[in-house]
Amino acid sequence: MTNAPVNSFDEWSPLKEVLVGRADHYNAHHVDTSFQLFYFDNVKPDVDAAAGQPLLPIPQRIVDELNEDITGLAEALATGGITVHRPAAPGKDIDIRSPYWDARATPPLNVRDNTIILGRTIVETAPHVRARIFENDMLKSLFYRYYDAGSRWLSMPRPALARGSLDTAYFEREGIDVSHVTGADTALPLDGLGLELVFDGAQCMRLGRDVLVNAANRNHHLALRWLREAFPELTFHLLDGIADSHIDSVVVPLRPGLMLLRDPAYLDYLPAAMRSWDVIIPPPMDESAFPDYSEFGFNIASRYIDMNVLSIDENTVVVNSLYPELMDLLEGRGFTVVPVRHRHRRLAGGGFHCFTLDMVRAGGCETYLN
């Protein structure tokens, strides 16, 4: 039972309450245009080879193993004295429809994406992927309990995600032609709509009073404007296209003054006050370290997904036990590592940070960037 409001200002202060996602009925990827654009860097050219198959099935054995590993994560957190909440479980495969498109709904697995906790406020974001538009319904009962306990609760404008509402500017700047993806969109247009506010919570990293925000296109810049207007007491730092969307497999603050960073080249995107922080570069992982899904599907996450760790406090980090190189490196830096197995992270598109939403941490609205 939740008796206190949300309180989560950063990524590292002692974790008290957390939401852990679930993968029930995640038995297919719905590979429409919104899905393809969102995961483009990782699914190209596999989606082209699967043209004409809107649903790419995921074997039940994989779904069972994914849920088994998620249960292991929830149990590890609970063993550490953390209150663990879970979303409602969809009781069946759910097909959804808007006036402009239809899709197979995605279950509430990567719960970091459609919500940001900013201090004492729950913020529901504006999904990129059509199949995820109703995903937060599975979290509503928990959000109401926090609301009743005194939390503030806001929602970004819900996007229509009609044809033509997603900005492809990031790909154009990178010299990548996605016209074959946008041209094959089966959704209907909405007259006069243009580019919408579209944004995921995992495009943010919270540092107390300061929040890093990746904005790679017009959709994201509209969201950054919304955040600045809704939270004038916080400082939102633009990371100008550090990635196409999520950043929690690019930069992961572990505590004040120390971060995981995919590559030193990404320092140039960060606020000047962070460029002097100590940096840990994750050890490389070869493709052979991951399961092969080529018989039925493809990876939707990159090989960097295992740097997507979850901090329990400034000295304790949950790391995939299948990434011993990172475990050894963090232990060598004085961290206590909590190993949890996570086999299908590239197929599910998320690591431990993605699968969790920290509802209550002990930290406050501190200033870590001067």
Automatic annotation (TrEMBL):
Belongs to the amidinotransferase family. The keyword Heme does not apply. One of its GO terms (molecular function) is amidinotransferase activity. Keywords: Plasmid, Transferase. This is Inosamine-phosphate amidinotransferase 1. The keyword Magnesium does not apply. Signal peptide: none annotated. The active site is at D200, H246, C354.
